[in-house]
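Quick question, first post here. What does this chain look like in 3D?
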Amino acid sequence: MKSLLFQNGDQMPALGLGTWKSKPNEVYEAVLHAIKVGYRHIDCAYVYKNENEIGKAISDAISQGLVKREELWVTSKLWNDSHLPNDVLPAIKNTLNDLQLDYLDLYLVHWPIALKKGVGMPAEPSDFLTKDEAPLSATWAEMEKLQKNGLTRQIGVSNFNSAKIEALKKTASLMPTVNQIEFHPYLPQAKLKDYCDKNGIHITGYGPLGAAYRVAANEVDHPLLLENKQLEIIAKNNSASVAQVVLAWAIEKGVSVVPKSVNFQRIEENFAGSKLVLNKEDMETIDNLGGPYRYTHGGAWVGEISPYDFSDIWEENL
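> Answer (accepted):
Ran it through. Tokens below.
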């Protein structure tokens, strides 16, 4: 398994198991099976509301001798309602308690959007905190303390564009080591990836297989990545599935990916895809499939009720 190397010697496996929208009772079995298959990277978040089951699966895997804690890479994320300085430490402690862990390997600021305490998804203007009320610089200062106090080995961000990271530079004593963003052949985010590469920031790609659906409410109808005819040809030539080809492409580009699944067969298939090696011609073909198509619209964070707009979350001029 390829890994992404950090300055302190930490290694994040290039393939992880995503757990977003994994239902109760399913996510426990999925995580346990993934560890049995060989996964050593589990991607979590407080807002997914399933960290307690993930924690039980990790605890059981360790007690059964399937894996040691130090062999696992566990990521979680600070939700938008915990950006105020006094809320950051309690948030990670809650996550650690649910995951039954003493420390995380990586803790991310989930979005550069701040909500009032207790708000899951905003429904009215009063649900938001403005940039002045909850400056990211103050949130990041607390994230730095978490790392310095050993509660997480690495700190990073998610859904941050280059402008937001540049703004952090002005006051940060520790820079983010990871930026988790939507990343797949229809959204390779070349400009943002180049910025992160130049600044020593690893990228983790969520939604690496694109969307599993064609249309979502209030969102643009994009083609499905896994139905792309050119990818189907490449997959056939490599005796692989389209999903395996897409994952191999991202890993070859130095990106870690966290495809979500609770299906045992797909969990195994994705793991096998991490070992696939594509030739230069295949890589170039995939690089030029078309797009950009963004499947994570982000509409919940912008609009009439919000003090934020799309320039606060997405990289412009893709």
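The first strand starts at residue 3 and ends at 5.
The chain has ten helices and twelve strands.
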